[in-house]
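Notebook B, p. 112. Complex prediction, attempt 2.
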Amino acid sequence: MLKVQDINLFYGAIQALRNINFHVQPGEIVSLIGANGAGKSSILNAISGVHTISSGEILFEDQSIKKLPPFRLVGMGLSQVPEGRRVFAKMSVHENLEMGAFTRSDTPGIDLDMERIFAHFPRLKERRKQLAGTLSGGEQQMLAMGRAMMSRPKLLMMDEPSMGLSPLLVQEIFDIIREINQEGTTILLVEQNAQMALSLAHRAYVLETGRIIKSGAGQALMQDEDVRKAYLGG
Amino acid sequence: MNLFLNQLINGLHVGSIYALIALGYTMVYGIVKLINFAHGDIIMVGAYTAVIVLMTLGWSAPVALLAAVVVCVIFGVLIERIAYKPLRNSPRISSLITAIGVSMLLQNAALLIFGAQPQPFPTVLNIEPIKLNGIQISFVTLLTVGISAVLMILLQGFVIGSKAGKAMRAASEDYTTAQLMGINVNTTITLTFAIGCALAGIGSFLFCMAYPAVSPTMGSLPGLKAFIAAVLGGIGIIPGAMLGGFVMGVAESLTKAYISTTMSDAVVYGILILVLLVKPTGLLGKTTSEKV
């Protein structure tokens, strides 16, 4: 579904990504784990076109997307939950979800999907008229996820959904990610919380200073000596 | 009492023109964080367009108004594409200086083409003022306030209710995330400039009906006042620009009546300073504390 081939990304003179290669197959949950500054978010931003790669190729459903502007990708079925949620704080919960469906014009389908999202996140339904900026961190994360789901993505990319949330909420969010995946959405997950990310993922890649240093099944990586030491606290 | 009411009505008249122009400043600032200093000169562009259509071509006032709007929109969109878009990722000071440059370019181009001599704006409406218990309301005033009110309601409805309006609000909050929603932010910015300049086009026509002299630098002062109205109300906030415009207009005409004609600008700027001292975000501005 998604193939990332040999991409390099620079911020000015600093090289953020070095020859990154990985792929995501339909139906999978794939996690990218690594420390702060390893290049996890840079990969997502390179795929979504927020940052332009200097070399390499990105294929989504066998079509090159590396030159497409970010707004074109949503219509193709690629959606991103940005790091730090980035909800539209001065817009209502309902309007935020509407923005997620910006590329669609099938009103009945949009209404149906909104109900589906409210089923996943009942708290959003209670607060649908409230401004998104007044929600708690966890609720904002749910809103950001719901908003991205409103475009009916084939591939949903999530950047640090656990950031700043209590362990209980993290568990809740990850349960919902699993549900969304079981309903048929492929997921590419970027996480610092390696424990959670690996237990959820079918496959995972480990990043260090802009390079992929390890890959494998989520469970297998959890047993890996180096990974345990570096990311799982021994 | 009658003097007060008459001046209040005059204030609403000028204020609604300031408000229309202020909307262009505030909408553009909201989305690209740029004070478009060329916005005042768009008024001048609209005024010359109307004069040409009315005097040289001899066509009717509605045609002249429409022409002014169309030409203002074309100028606004071209200025954005040519002067501001290439600088979108540059430091904000670069676009600000460019905006001042565009303003000078427009003024001097008009000076070259039309000369420095102000041209009279013809009387387009010759209707007797309405008299009510000693209060005199000119038809132009009624028309100006009425048109402005309708336009502001329409604009507010558009920004709150329509899909394009919501995209505009989303983009003004978070440019990058708006793109991730599939919003073409370039189109949204173009639309914002177009709407702002269309309002300025209508504003320029209404301004000329009130002050019938057209000259290359005529846009500077109403432009500056409208900018102040936008800041007074809270820059980036659409109802703030409307409120700011009316406050400025009323303060200006009441000062002229009760204090002194020459003091009116000083009082208006004084109000701005006071408001900014007490509430730096403007009358309707909110310091949003966002939960994370």
